[in-house]
Amino acid sequence: MKIILLLYLASLPAKEVLTYDVNLGPLYAGEMKLSFIQTTFEGQPCYRFRSVLSSLEGLAWLFTLNDTIYSYVTRDSFKVLYVEKRMHETNYDTVIRVRFDWETNRILYEDGSSYPLLPGTLDVVSIYYFFRLNPLAVGEERDVVLHADRMTERASVQGVKEVAVRSQASPTGSFVCTKLAPDVRGKGSFGSGGNLIFYLTNDENLYPALIRTVMTIGSISARLKWIWFE
Length: 230
Fold this sequence. Notes:
Elements: E1 15-24, E2 27-41, E3 44-55, E4 65-74, E5 80-89, E6 92-101, E7 106-109, E8 114-116, E9 121-122, H1 126-133, E10 141-148, E11 151-166, E12 174-184, E13 195-201, E14 208-215, E15 218-229
Parallel strand pairs: 9-10
Antiparallel strand pairs: 1-2, 1-15, 2-3, 3-4, 4-5, 5-6, 6-7, 7-8, 10-11, 11-12, 12-13, 13-14, 14-15
């Protein structure tokens, strides 16, 4: 599969925090934050992307969820260098550290296991920012490779249609967005076992206004409610 080179049609601010309401089906379950800063990793200028997902304290009787993912990506070529996943869930607590070695073209896990590193490989957080920097119009598509949870998958991401997405972050109560739907060639969507769909605003910011994972047993959605940047 041919990987399309970065176009860099858009830009990102120096710092940004996006806050989302998270629902499991009709149940309001907690909050997610997507944020980034410009920093360095082992001397290389990078974006540090972070995703934090936290469940409501009132749902502790049912489940507890407090997951954080860090992703370091080079600013000039958008290559993932390092991913760290901290998972604190009901009866489950672990830290997973992964290095992306572009000299040997291997993905290296802390336990010594390794996997092939394909050109243009993204992770589960950097994919949203990749498409903010490389937006798709309706009818366009772009091939991507994504690695998550020891699984590498290929997908053709399509700009499906323009839709209005409700959001507290919009002064008018909604954003006009482009719906992006990856057509995954593998087992589920990016290791999650479901089908990922996300909606980017049709303005200069290209915010992910809504992120949905549709699974056989239901759906998880994150809806943008607050924006901070500088």
